[in-house]
Fold this sequence. Notes:
Blueprint: H1 13-39, H2 54-61, E1 69-71, H3 77-83, H4 87-95, H5 128-141, E2 148-153, H6 160-171, E3 176-182, E4 185-186, E5 189-190, H7 191-194, H8 200-205, E6 210-215, H9 219-234, E7 240-245, H10 263-270, H11 274-284, H12 290-313
Parallel strand pairs: 1-2, 2-3, 3-7, 6-7
Antiparallel strand pairs: 4-5
Helix pairs in contact: 1-2, 1-3, 1-11, 1-12, 2-3, 2-9, 4-12
Amino acid sequence: MSIHKTAATPGTEREHALALLRQMLLIRRFEEKSAELYSAGKIRGFLHLYIGEEAVAVGTMQALTKEDAVVATYREHGQALARGLPAGKIMAEMYGKANGCSRGRGGSMHLFDAGRRFYGGYAIVAGGLPVAVGLALADKLQERQAVTACFFGDGAVAEGEFHESLNLATLWRLPVLFLCENNLYGMGTSLEQSESQTDIHLKAQNYNMLAEAVDGMDVLAVESATQRAVAQVRRGDGPYFLELRTYRYRAHSMSDPELYRSKEEVAQWRGRDPISLFDAYLRGQGMLDDVELKALEADVANDIDWAVAEAEKGEWEPVADLERDVYAGVAA
Length: 332
Ligand SMILES: Cc1ncc(C[n+]2csc(CCOP(=O)(O)OP(=O)(O)O)c2C)c(N)n1
Ligand SMILES: [Mg+2]
């Protein structure tokens, strides 16, 4: 592990490191609260938690600027928070309130914020990849110096859109950063049961792009690999692919009895919890102590309280707006 300062979090090395820790804690506490609110019936529909994968969203996002675009999946609270969407707008969205980032029409799986170039939130597995390729094509044609970062799971590899998107991105030398969150499972199916080649970055290399695997539990490893990859993409020679090896500690969604993996396996990965790992590293460097951690946790808890208050006080969209954004008419 070594700390790199970036434009996203300027300041001293220690300030940068604490900002990374704070972002990971914010995601973790936000999601723990979301699970609680889901059980209380405040959040409905689907809810897919990112707990265990925080280092991926936080580490990658450090290498992006506000001109860059982001496309994510239905497990995207972490990316949205790390991109800077206000926690209150995300929570209000999950409540289905009109002050949510998608006006309460998208819910947990469809967070969106065009102003921050955060283009979803896709419920369809691999659905975001062609969108990312299209965004990058538009940026290239309009000569904007932007990179499109596209997150997707290991499950997306089985979809035709994955292969079509990688192929076109190389062929047209598009500025896409493909970020595969390999958490070893697509719902209840393990990668080993579904793929003949489980080293996913090797598949990407077949499309003639630079690709590598990264320890997705180590926020600093993720950050430095992404910085290298983004620098390469910005050179204009085409896409780059990172396979981020990670693990989700919670079930696939809120209605999953988790019969497909052993408690021992989960415990083993919990031993490499990205937050605990980074906490231990920072203490070893003399950059963190109990007092500092307590202050960070209190600060994050304030943000979560504020987010829930925003969602609680938000209004429901009026019934009169029911047909707003509905484009199809009834045939005469
Ligand atoms: C095209 C399509 N097929 C099936 C589904 C049902 N489905 C929802 S999540 C999921 C698993 C995806 O796993 P992965 O891409 O590894 O992401 P993870 O949930 O592990 O983050 C599946 C099959 C879907 N949403 N879209
Ligand atoms: Mg997966």
